Each structure stands twice: as C-alpha cells, then as structure tokens.
Amino acid sequence: MYYRQIEPPPDLTPWVECAWFLETALAPEGQLIVPDGRRELIFHFAARPLCAGLQQAGTLITSNLNQALELALTGTMKVFGVRLQPFASETGLAELALDTGFQDQSHLVNDFRAFCGQSPEAYFRSGRGMTEFYRDGFLQDTPPR
Length: 145
Hints:
CATH topology of the largest domain: Jelly Rolls
Helix content: 25-40%
Oligomer: single chain
Largest sheet: 5 strands, antiparallel
Number of helices: 4
C-alpha cells in the first residue's frame, strides 16, 4: 500500500484539509470506512471498489456519513482525493449563492427546489447532472500516463 498526504497551499487551508493519493489492493475482507465529519472529492484512476454491492462512481463527492460503510475488493486502486475542512462545502454553497446574485443560501435552495423538484443535496446524491458526465468517461476513465 502507498499513501501520501499533501498539505494545501495556505490560501486553500480554510476549505481544504489536505489532498491525498492512495494506491493499494483492498484486503479480501474489504475496508471499513467510518464517519469522520469530512466531505471529500474522490477520483478513481484504476479499479473502483464496491459499496453495498454497487461499484463506486469514478468521480464522486462524498457526503457527511452518518454510518460506517464497507468497500469491497475489485482490484488495485489508484485514488486521488481532496479532504475538505468541516463545513467547508456548506460555506461554499452560501458563497455561491451570493456570487450568483441570490440574497442568501436559502433563496438559492428554494429556487433550485422549484426548478428541479428537489433540494440540491437530493439532486446531487441521486447521481445525475455533472456526476454522470464525469462518470461516463470524461475524467476518471482516462488511462493513466
């Protein structure tokens, strides 16, 4: 197993705890992931693990876990991740709202719900939108160099 953690540049530390790279083959019994209060951006560049019998997307944004989950072996994994600071993504949504002309985050969420029929969290958790674009071969399925 190879794991490397990289500190972010000082101007990103309010939002990013670290970046990391992992290359490993999971043990046959899998790997237990416990909730730690952090959201992460995860990019798989090789085998993607199974979670509850479903293969993880090649590119994903994790939510705050409320229970442990187990990843199962599918082969050698090469993963790059960005671990966000606690509450960094919520702050980001508030800033996005202000940057795009909304009075506050709740107005953005209300308009999003009226337009899409669900909250931003439910929409992005459903795996539609940009997630599908990336998962279908734009980024993570590019062969490593």
